[in-house]
Specification:
By secondary structure, this protein is α+β, with helices and mostly antiparallel strands. It has a single domain, classed as Cytidine Deaminase, domain 2 (3-Layer(aba) Sandwich). The protein contains 4 helices and 5 strands. Strands 2-1-3-4-5 form a 5-stranded mixed sheet. It starts with a helix and ends in a 7-residue tail after the last helix. The structure holds zinc ion.
């Protein structure tokens, strides 16, 4: 699966976003190393800080299905990931992060997105 195809799966997932407050629908699609794709969408809440980003929704879903750090090859996202999600992507040791930014599909490594990062 190409990064562009993975991004298209994220676009499809964005249709399921629950975003009544911002109306900013975000989708994410994880490509697992075994070829499976796990999607997520952002889920907002009336208590705003409790909302979950699409990337973390997808990663949480994958973990619930037994996925461990190192088992995710790439992610496609319909928007630039926030700082918190960048830290999550770093921890799960993805190879590539493909996201739409100003009309261009950018592909970065988690380390490029979180330089000089915090790690335990
Ligand atoms: Zn985020």
């Amino acid at each position: 699966m190409t990064d562009r195809e993975l991004y298209e799966r994220a676009v499809e997932a964005a249709a399921n976003a629950y975003a009544p407050y911002s109306n900013f629908h975000v989708g994410a699609a994880l490509l697992l190393r075994d070829g499976r794709v796990v999607t997520g969408a952002n889920v907002e809440n009336a208590s705003y800080p409790l909302g979950v980003c699409a990337e973390r929704a997808a990663l949480s879903r994958a973990v619930a299905e037994g996925v461990k750090p190192g088992e995710v090859e790439a992610i496609g996202i319909t928007a630039s990931p926030c700082g918190g999600c960048r830290q999550w992507l770093l921890e799960f040791r993805l190879d590539r992060v493909a996201f739409m930014h100003e009309g261009e599909l950018l592909v970065r490594t988690p380390a490029e997105l979180v330089p000089d990062s915090f790690e335990l």
